[in-house]
Amino acid sequence: MRKASSARNQLIGMAGVYYVAAELCRRGYIALPTSRNLRAFDLIVMDQETGRSVGVEVKTREPRKGEKVQFKVIQATGESILYGDALEKRIKSCYVFVCLPPEEQPTFYIVPRDDVIRLVKESVEYYFGTRKHPRKTREQILKSRYPVGPYLELLEKYKDKWELLFARGTGKEESVGE
């Protein structure tokens, strides 16, 4: 059962990348998917008018009815996220979060790099503020590794904000050409 679920998740992830690429092309950008095992980003996007390019990370979720949707950005200890520099080192680009409900059109949330870092920290703080563990102390939980990322409800203000793709704080923007 796990293999089927894993394969399904990979297909959903790939669909999200191609939905984002298609939307960017529709808007006049050049969008090139990278190899699926490239860690840095999923798409290389170029603005034909300015010659600027940016790497984009895509995270896709297919929500189940009634589920509190969380997009997984990284796996790290709570301690390294809240008090260290794990996020700054590992989050290198703008993210596009894709909500892909069954048999509906996708919804896109375009979030600059610096905002992704802030949202992940807020999600970790929310997690610690709302959950109680019967057998572990807060310090033990902080040292545990787990996947973290923003909850869908925190992303609403980024819905369809494609102009944020090349905004400051999106990662390492480069000029291509000339």
| Beta-strand fraction estimate | 15-25%
Uncertain spans, ≥5 residues at pLDDT below 50? Answer: 172-178
How confident is the prediction overall: mean pLDDT? 83
Number of domains: 1
Distance between the termini: 52 Å
What is the molecular shape?
A: globular
Q: What is the oligomeric state here?
A: single chain
Q: What's the CATH class label? A: Alpha Beta
Order of helices and strands: HEEEEHHEEHHEE
Structural class: alpha+beta
Instruction: Estimate the helix proportion, in percent.
Output: 25-40%
Strand tally, please? Answer: 8
Describe the structure.
With 178 residues, the protein is of the alpha+beta class. It has a single domain (2-175), classed as Trna Endonuclease, Chain: A, domain 1 (3-Layer(aba) Sandwich), CATH 3.40.1350. 33% of the residues lie in helices and 23% in strands. The chain has five helices and eight strands; from the N terminus they run H-E-E-E-E-H-H-E-E-H-H-E-E. The chain has helices at residues 2-26, 78-82, 86-90, 113-130, 138-143, and strands at 29-33, 43-47, 52-61, 74-77, 94-99, 107-111, 145-148, 174-175. The strands form two sheets. Strands 1, 2, 3, 5, 6 and 8 form a six-stranded mixed sheet that branches. A two-stranded antiparallel sheet has the order 4-7. Strand 2 (43-47) and strand 3 (52-61) form a beta hairpin. The longest helix has 25 residues, at 2-26. The radius of gyration is 17 Å and the shape is globular.
